[in-house]
Structure prediction request, 128 residues.
Amino acid sequence: MHEAAIALAVVREAEKLAKTLGTKPKLVEVVVGELQSIDLEVLGEYIRMNLREALPGVEYKITTEPPVLRCEQCGYEWRLDMNTLDPDVKEAIHFLPEALHAYVKCPVCGSRDLTVVRGREIRVRVHG
Ligand SMILES: [Zn+2]
Prediction:
C-alpha cells in the first residue's frame, strides 16, 4: 500500500507550497507520471483524508502525464502516447515499467535502447 505513503508526502508538500503561496490555496493539483504503478483511486482517497486534516476545505485534482522516452542510439526524445498502445501492453507497462523495452521502439531508428526520461515522478502544485 505505498499509496498511503505517497499521499502523505503529497499533502506534506502541498502544505509547504501553501506556505510559500501566502494565501490559503483552493486547489492542490497532483500530476502523476503514467508509468507510476499506483492506484489513482486509492491515492485520491488517501489524499482526501490527509488533506482534510492538513488543509481543510482545499480541493484536490489528480492528473496524469505521458512518459517521455529517449533513444540512446540516436538521441531522439518523444512523449509516448499510452493510448496508442494495445490495452494489454498498456497494462503490462503500467505494472512493470521495465516491460516497456519489449514493446516500444524508437520511431526514428527502431532501437529498443530506450531511457525513461520522465514518467515515474509525482509533482505537486497548489493553486490559490
Ligand atoms: Zn533512435
